[in-house]
Structure formats: C-alpha cells, structure tokens
Amino acid sequence: MGLRTYIRENFIEDIKPYKPRHFRKPGQMLDIVSAWKGLEQIVEDIIDQFGLERDRCIEFGVEFGYSAVVFSNYFKSVTGVDTFEGDIHTVNKNEHFEETSRRLASYPNIQLVKSDYKDWIARDDQHYNLAHVDIVHNYAETFECGLWAAQHSDCTIFHDTESFPEVRRAVKDLAKKTGHKLYNYPEHHGLGILVARKK
Ligand SMILES: C[S@@+](CC[C@H](N)C(=O)[O-])C[C@H]1O[C@@H](n2cnc3c(N)ncnc32)[C@H](O)[C@@H]1O
After folding, report:
1. Mind listing the GO molecular function terms for this protein (predicted)?
2. Which of 55, 66, 171, 177 has the most CB atoms at less than 10 Å from its CB?
3. Is ligand 1 within 6 A of the CB of residue 171?
C-alpha cells in the first residue's frame, strides 16, 4: 500500500470537542450514586444541536438506572438492555434486575430488558433516535455494540471516553469505520458522540 492510500484509508479528522450551548437539568432524576452524574445537564443540548427526534432511545448498560431516567425525560420510549449482573469494571456484581425494575416502575416509558447486548443486537433491527453505550469498558465489546448502535441510530453516545482508553480507541475506530462525525465532551469521565452525517 502506498503512503497516499494508507493516509486516505486511515485518516480520521481530529475528534471535535463538544461545546454545549445550554446546560439544562432534567425534571426527573434518581438520587443515586452514578459515574454518569453531571452528564444529565447536556442531554437536551445534544438532542437540539443534532436535531434529533424525541421518539426512541436505546441504552446498553443501565445498571441502577441513573442515565435511563435522564433519557426518559426526553424520549417517548427508552429501552434499557443490561445483564443486571455487573461486569469486571463495576463495583456491584450482584444480580439486581427485579430491584432495579421496582425502582424504575414509576417511569412508564422505560422498558428494561435483562439480556446480554450480543443477544439483543442479534434480533433487533429497529431504528432509534439516540443510542447510549455504557457496558463493560473493553475494546471488543464497545466496538461491537457501538457498531450496531451507530448503524441503528441517528446519534450514539459512549460514556467513559476519558477514563477508559479502550473505550476512546473503540469510538475513534467506529468513527473511521462508519464515516460518522465524532465529538468528545471531556467532563464527567468523558462522553463520545458519534453522529451520522446528513445525506
Ligand atoms: C457502567 S455500568 C452502567 C451505568 C449506567 N449507565 C448509569 O447511568 O449509572 C455498566 C453496566 O453494563 C452492564 N453490562 C456489561 N456488559 C454487558 C453486556 N455484555 N451486555 C449487557 N450489559 C452489560 C453491567 O451489568 C453494568 O450494569
């Protein structure tokens, strides 16, 4: 492969810093511990800046429901997929599907599904306005789940791009593979934002 071909095939524009125009706190939030805390202030800004419809949101990695409840303020329906068993990076490794379902019962637009993301993406072919990937923070899982999410949504966001280099690397590779635009918001452990380019 010549140098020009190599550069063309591997070129990725620098990640653009995401600059929120407005910080707005959603009306409904859970008062629980979460590394996601703080990001709730920019979700509506992301929806507005990228002109997203507010119908359907899917989340991979719900844990106790902090981010799922944030999304429920803005989307008619939120589907939350999680094994509810934790992973190598989470403190909690006890099964908690029933407990979390009870906690989120007062948010009728959230549907929780106890499933590995691998099983879910093998059978779901629907389209979402926003997808959120916050599962185990390894390269392979983030890339596989993120690729499906990028192909089935208008905008995919990834938590922990600052605190987990493997997540950041997967997100950069996804931008290269899909040709989507990539932004990064560095606060609150980092949020990568992949947006499909308008045709
Ligand atoms: C960092 S936590 C999610 C935090 C959550 N978004 C919040 O708002 O606090 C990661 C979650 O991903 C889930 N998870 C890890 N690997 C998974 C997989 N392969 N499929 C589905 N869920 C997975 C874990 O069970 C855990 O609950």
Report:
1. methyltransferase activity
2. 171
3. no
- Give the chain's count of helices (H) and strands (E): 7, 8
179 domain-assigned: yes
Q: Is the CB of 40 under 6 A from ligand 1?
A: no
Q: The domain containing residue 91 runs over which residues?
A: 15-195
pLDDT tens sequence across 65-100: 999 999 999 999 999 999 999 999 998 889 999 999
Q: Say whether 28 sits in a helix, a strand or coil.
A: coil
DSSP state of 107: -
Q: How confident is the model over 125-179, as pLDDT tens digits?
A: 999 999 999 999 999 999 999 999 999 999 999 999 999 999 999 999 999 999 9
The answer to whether 157 and 147 are in contact (CB under 8 A) is no
Number of domain units in the chain: 1
Distance 73 CA to ligand 1 centre (A): 20
Ligand 1 atom index nearest CA of 115: 21
> Ligand 1: does its nearest atom lie under 6 Å from the Cβ of 36?
yes
Whether the CB-CB separation of 144 and 160 falls below 8 Å is answered with no
Number of Cα atoms under 13 Å in the Cβ half of residue 12 = 19
Which CATH number is 124's domain given?
A: 3.40.50.150
Q: What digits encode the pLDDT tens for the residues 138-149?
A: 999 999 999 999
